[in-house]
Amino acid sequence: MLYSNENILFYLNQHPTVCVLGGGKTGKSTYDFLKSLHLNPFLVDRNPVNGYNTFSDSNLLSSLPDFQILIKSPGISPNHPLLIESRKQKKSIFSEIDLASAFFRGKIISITGTDGKSTTTALTSHLIQKAYPKTKMGGNIGTPFLDFCREDLDFAVLELSSYQLEDSSTIPSIASCILNLANDHLERHGTLENYRNAKLKIINHQNPDHVFITSSGFMKSLKDHEIRSKTLIFGIEEGPDAKINFKEKTIQTPKHIYSYEKFQPEGNHNLLNLCASLLLAEVADCDPGILETAIETFSGLKHRFQTFANYKSTKFINDSKSTNSHSLVAGVKGLSTDIAYFLILGGRPKEEPLDQLFLALRENPPKKILLFGEASEIWGNEFEKEFPERLLKIRYLKDSFDRIESQWKSEAYDRILFSPGGSSFDEFSNFEERGDFYMENILKRLNPGE
Fold first, then answer.
1. Over the stretch 346-366, which tens digit does the pLDDT of each residue have?
2. 104-295 to CATH, choices 3.40.50.80, 3.40.50.300, 3.40.1190.10, 3.40.50.800
3. Residue % of the chain over a pLDDT of 90
4. 177 with 112: CB under 8 angstroms?
5. 388 CB-near residues (< 8 Å, 6+ apart)
6. CA–CA separation, 273 vs 119, rounded Å?
7. CB-based contact 138:148 (threshold 8 Å)
8. In angstroms, what CA-CA distances link 442 with 245, 300, 449?
9. What confidence score (pLDDT) does residue 1 get?
10. What pLDDT does residue 326 have?
C-alpha cells in the first residue's frame, strides 16, 4: 500500500531497515539519502552495484533482510515478483518522490506530459529563479529530488514521469501542469486510460489552494473526470487563461500581456510550453516585469528543438529527444508553413499509428524526407506510398551525412530538422548520444578546417 507523506518519517523511525528496489540513478540516490539518516538500507538489483549493499532481484523475499518499507525506483515494473510479494505481505511501499517530499520545506511546482515536460520544467525554473534565486529543478530531469530536498529553497520545480507518478502518493505541490497526452509507454501502463490516470496523480486535491494548469486539448479529454482544483487553461484558440496572439507576438495571461518576440526556442509547441511556464510562474507570485525580461534569456535545452548551426540562410535543428511520433508531429506543426525544410527522421519506431504524422506532413510538407535506421525498413513502404518523390532512405544514420550535405548544398532550405520520432536504441544507447553524434558530424562538414 501507499502512505501519505506525513506518515513516512514515522514509518522510517519505526522500521529503519529499508529495501530499495532498483540500483540505477534514483536507487543509489535513495540509498545514499537513507544512509545519511543513519538508517539501514539495502539495494535490490539485477546486477551487483559497487559500493552498495546489494542483493540480487532473483532472490525470494524470504532470502532478503527483514524489512517493512520498500522504496521502488520508477524504472522497475509494477509486476516485479518482489513487488507483488511485498504487496501481499502488506509492506509499506512508496516512491523516492514521496520520501523527498516528506523532507522538503519549500514550495513544489510539478510538471508532466507526454512531450515538452523537460523544456517546460527548465523554462519554469528559469523564470521563477529570476524572482526567487533559491530555486532548483529536478526529478525526472537532471538531479533526483532527494539530492536537494533538505536544502533551504523557496521552490523545487519537478519534472515527473508517469512511472514516478504511478508509484507516488499525492505530490504536495502548490501548482501542477499536464502539458498533453498521447499514446506512449503503453507497454508499461497497458491502456491510454491507465497512462492518463498516472498523470492525473500530479494534481494535489488535498490542497484547496492548489492550481492545476493544462492545455485546452488535454482538458477536453477530461470530461468524465472530476477536477476539484482551480484550473487554468492555455492554448491558441479563444478563451484560454493564457492565449497566444501570433500577429502581435504576445501571450496574454490573467496578469499581463507578455511579448515573445525575443523568445529563442523555435516552434509553436515551444510557445505553448511558454504559456504553461508563465501561468506556473504567476501562481508562484513572480512579478510579471521580471518574467518579461526572463523570457528573452532562456536558450532552450540541448537535443530539444535546438538550433545549433547555420549555413547561409539555413538553420540546423537538433530534436533528438523526439522519440515518438507525437513529439515529431509537434515539431512539424511548430514550423511555419511558409518555410522550406528538410526532415530527417527514423530510429527504432514505437508501435504507433502513422495517420497523425502523415496528416501533419501533408499539411506542412517537407521538400525532402530522409528516413534512417530501423524505421527505413519498418516504415519504408508506407512513406514511399505517401511521399514517393520526396523520400530518401538509408539504413544507418552514420552513413547518411553525404546525402544530408548534398541536400543543403544543392537545395535552398530554411530549416534542416533532425527529429527522429523513434527511439535511439537501434544504433545508440540514448537520445543524447544520438543527438551529439548528429551534431558533431554536421559541424565537421560545415567547418571542415576546424
1. 999 988 889 999 999 999 999
2. 3.40.1190.10
3. 78
4. yes
5. none
6. 7
7. yes
8. 35, 20, 13
9. 38
10. 87
